[in-house]
Write a structure and sequence with these properties.
Elements (H helix, E strand, L loop, with lengths): L1 H16 L5 E2 L4 E3 L2 E6 L2 E6 L2 E7 L2 H13 L4 H32 L3 H29 L2
Antiparallel strand pairs: 1-2, 2-3, 3-4, 4-5
Length: 141
């Protein structure tokens, strides 16, 4: 049993050595030297007062980008996560607009337009879900 305990302790120590503990401040969440600032539904990433990434939609993306940047000055994976998050935001917004258009068309009894809006809503929602999954997979660092 002691050998298992020692091995578990080694694994935990190794995992924790790669983790930067976030600290909540008055300005936002500090991860190393990187600050996550909440701006309504969106987040920005700052270092030394300079905005590095703005308008991040998903919390998981903001946390992953901040952790990557806290470990190094720049990281190509952070750019990939940011690009996927921005695409997610575009498709999620589009799906909300199409859903509103669908509901308005049904209310006005314009069923042909409602069918078109519903089809576009389905496509937008599907793409947003795919991109959210992509962001989450990229963010599992």
């Amino acid at each position: 049993m002691t050998e298992i305990s020692r091995r578990l302790e080694q694994i935990i120590r190794k995992e924790l050595s790669n983790t930067i503990i976030p600290v909540k401040t008055d300005e936002g969440i500090l991860v190393g030297s990187v600050l996550i600032v909440n701006q309504g539904n969106l987040k920005s990433i700052k270092r030394n007062g300079e905005i590095l990434y703005r308008d991040i939609n998903l919390n998981k993306a903001a946390i992953a980008i901040a952790n990557l940047l806290a470990r190094s000055r720049s990281n190509p994976l952070a750019d990939q996560i940011y690009a996927a998050d921005r695409d997610y935001g575009k498709w999620a917004t589009d799906s909300h607009i199409m859903r509103s258009g669908y509901e308005k068309s049904v209310k006005n009894k314009d069923f042909e337009r409602a069918d078109i809006m519903w089809a576009r809503y389905q496509e937008s929602r599907s793409r947003a879900a795919d991109l959210k999954n992509k962001v989450e997979k990229l963010s599992n660092i």
